[in-house]
Design brief:
Number of strands: 2
Structural class: mainly alpha
Strand content: under 5%
Mean pLDDT: 88
Low-confidence stretches: 510-536
Radius of gyration: 31 Å
Largest sheet: 2 strands, antiparallel
Distance between the termini: 126 Å
Helix content: 55-70%
């Protein structure tokens, strides 16, 4: 009897379980079907997801009580991390500008010199890194006097960065306003120094000896550039006078432009550039990569100018990016229209140089001016570059890529623009010192009188005169010892073969004439880098 009751109970329980299984089976079947429809990759992720959930559960159970858990990062720690990240990203963008210079200068030069141009632009940053680490950074930002720094050579000396203001203790007091580690400060300033040296490369292209360019780059980055930079960014005498240059229209671009001008002058023009005392075009071989180079440089400027804030200030970064972009865009438009009317054609090389002119022109004032002012600055820069290119041709300065027209002329204009268009102390939230006191330049057109414009003029003349003096000394010493120009045979054959023993385009035809330039293209229009095709 008892056995029968147990069997009956078991059957009832089984029946209930079967009913439940019947209810759940359709759901399980649908789940299985859904899983089978997934790709193998997604199916493989399911066990991993289960392990992650189990791991989270274990951590939640095993974690220490809140009273014994370590404290998380403070707001100050997070700010330092974000500022450092932004400075590093900006430095990477500026470093990538080396690729832009490679493409731009190679495209504007003839194909027989492509390897030489690429080699110069590639090795110059490597040399700049060593020279700026050993000498440049200390001379520029190290504690010293109003003329030169004499501390921190080889990046050595006391430093408690990222401490700022009065809390800073070290030998780089000129940079105590930015709360990032010393390595971040050095990295960002290094890419600027490399840019100054790269500017020279284009102006002396197609006839300079490779070794002389390397030596000059070391001297420029190690000595000339940091001395004038100390006057402005190193709390030197120009900074004390009230000279303002936010991101380097003078510190970087004009210095590179003055050095390039003297190099081109001492080298003399390329063979075939002047015939019967008239300028003749030596067209660049690849405008496609020149255009690509321009776009890369435009992108790099979003690290060059906004990165100079050296802090992740959203208002400052975005405003500077807008003024920078607006000036570059308007500069390109202005150069296009001006070239169209002045030269008869919308020359691509002028469009490229117009964009770069606008970007150089806004570099000094990008944090101090409003959007309409940036439009005016870019407009004038774009017009200036179109007239500057034939001007240098007329005075016998052969600049294959227009570096002097872009970086020197528009660098000077951009520096003067600070004294004309700056909104004044406290005009924007970021124009304050560490104590919150309003600072900044005040332009003539915004009620500031000549108080800012006069120091800008003095700075242009002082930096220009000193850079011309030192550059001339460097070039003359090199010319007297090693000789700075390749032989006539090497120049006609191409520096790729003479200096490097290789060709950029192996197997392709080179110049059409044995003289090294194509006489058949000597009429009409303007060539890359501003080489006029018609006599001036």
């Amino acid at each position: 009897m008892q056995r029968n009751k147990s069997r009956t109970k078991i059957r009832r329980t089984s029946a209930r379980n079967s009913a439940k299984n019947l209810q759940f089976n359709p759901k399980i079947k649908r789940l299985i079907v859904a899983i089978k429809r997934l790709s193998p990759s997604w199916q493989a992720c399911l066990p991993l997801a289960c392990l992650i959930v189990l791991g989270w559960g274990y951590v939640a159970v095993a974690q220490a009580p809140a009273s014994t858990a370590p404290a998380g990062p403070t707001t100050a720690d997070l700010k330092i991390a974000l500022d450092t990240l932004w400075v590093a990203i900006a430095a990477f963008l500026v470093f990538f500008m080396n690729a832009g210079f490679c493409m731009l200068e190679t495209g504007f030069c003839r194909q027989k010199n492509a390897v030489n141009v690429l080699a110069k632009n590639l090795i110059v940053f490597a040399l700049s890194t060593v020279a700026f680490w050993a000498l440049g950074f200390g001379l520029m930002f190290g504690d010293g006097n109003d003329f030169i720094g004499h501390s921190g050579l080889f990046l050595a000396g006391t430093d408690n960065s990222p401490a700022t203001g009065d809390a800073y203790e070290g030998v780089f007091s000129a940079l105590n306003w930015t709360g990032v580690p010393l390595a971040a400060k050095f990295l960002f300033q290094l890419v600027f120094a490399g840019t100054a040296a790269t500017i020279v490369s284009g102006a002396v292209a197609e006839r300079i000896k490779f070794v002389d360019f390397l030596i000059f780059s070391l001297l420029l980055v190690g000595i000339a550039y940091p001395i004038t930079g100390h006057w402005i960014w190193g709390a030197g005498w120009l900074a004390d006078m009230g000279f303002w240059d936010f991101a380097g229209s003078t510190v970087v671009h004009s210095v590179g432009g003055w050095a390039a001008l003297m190099g081109a002058a001492f080298l003399g023009p390329r063979i075939g550039k002047y015939q019967d005392k008239q300028a003749v075009a030596l067209p660049g071989h690849n405008m496609s990569i020149a255009t690509l180079g321009c776009l890369i440089l435009w992108l790099g400027w979003f690290g060059f100018n906004p990165g100079s804030v050296m802090a992740a200030d959203p208002n400052a970064i975005t405003h500077i990016a807008l003024t920078t972009n607006m000036a570059g865009a308007v500069g390109g438009i202005a150069a296009t229209i001006t070239a169209w009317f002045y030269l008869g054609k919308p020359d691509l090389s002028m469009i490229i140089n117009g964009i770069l002119a606008g970007l150089v022109g806004i570099t000094a004032s990008c944090a101090y001016v409003n959007i309409p002012s940036s439009i005016v600055i870019g407009l004038i820069a774009g017009i200036l570059v179109v007239f500057a290119v034939p001007f240098f041709d007329k005075i016998g300065i052969d600049d294959p890529v227009g570096a002097t027209s872009v970086h020197l002329v528009c660098g000077i204009w951009g520096t003067l623009a600070v004294g004309l268009f700056a909104v004044g102390p406290g005009g924007y939230p970021w124009l304050v010192d560490l104590a919150g006191k309003p600072i900044g330049p005040h332009g003539l057109f915004f009620g500031g009188g000549f108080g800012t414009l006069i120091p800008q003029i003095v700075g242009v003349l002082a930096v220009g005169g000193f850079t011309v003096l030192l550059s001339s000394i460097f070039w003359l010493i090199l010319k007297a010892t090693l000789g700075i120009r390749v032989s006539r045979e090497e120049e006609l054959e191409g520096l790729d073969i003479g200096e490097h023993g290789m060709e950029a385009y192996s197997g392709f035809l080179k110049e059409a004439s044995p003289s090294g330039f194509n006489e058949g293209q000597s009429s009409g229009g303007i060539s890359s880098g501003g080489d006029l095709k018609s006599p001036l």
